[in-house]
Amino acid sequence: MTTTSKASTKTTTAEWFGTAARYVSPLPLIMGFFMLVYAFWFIPAWGLLGGIIFGALAVYAVICGALAIRNIKHAVRHPSIKTPEGEAQGKKMAVLSGITYPLLWLSVIALPLLGQAQFIMQAVVIIIGLHFIPMAKIQGRRIDYVLGPISVLFGIVGVLIALNNSSDWQLAFAVAGVGGAGATFVYAFYNLIGYRKMSEQAHALPL
């Protein structure tokens, strides 16, 4: 049985946990997938070393995915109750996503049509990195203020490499991918730890 505590003006622990748990629990699985998309370009750029790094990251992604699935199963055992705070946050995230992902897909489609396909990965990394900054304020996560600018920095370096030598686009993709892979690597771990801490704070059912 989930334990709850009453508060005069605040939402009870059980009420906020179910909704928050459903949001946080799949994130390590999602981050692990995108980490491998970014890290794939290490192989053509850096050969054997890139392959070894990619292999290690693949193992990490599998572990994150398995733990995320465990957390998802745990999350659905708790009721998801809408709260004014949660609905307001959801609306802000919907607006942010409504700006970020159309812009991302527009870049992915438009750049090849304009003969600038060597900038696709850099554009993706920069856009995703920039979207971490307002997300930090919406979600109240200070780590996003670090991960976002780091991703953007590596994306910009990737742009500079492609501008200097457009034929070396695989290296440019790999360098930009370092930023994306690094951010998703940290974010996956952060959310695994965060889910456990959140569960303990909520006095939720055991994992």
UniProtKB/TrEMBL annotation:
Transmembrane domains' residue ranges: 20-43, 49-72, 93-113, 119-136, 143-163, 169-190
UniProt keyword annotations, A-Z: Membrane, Transmembrane, Transmembrane helix
Keyword Membrane in record: yes
Protein name in UniProt: Uncharacterized protein
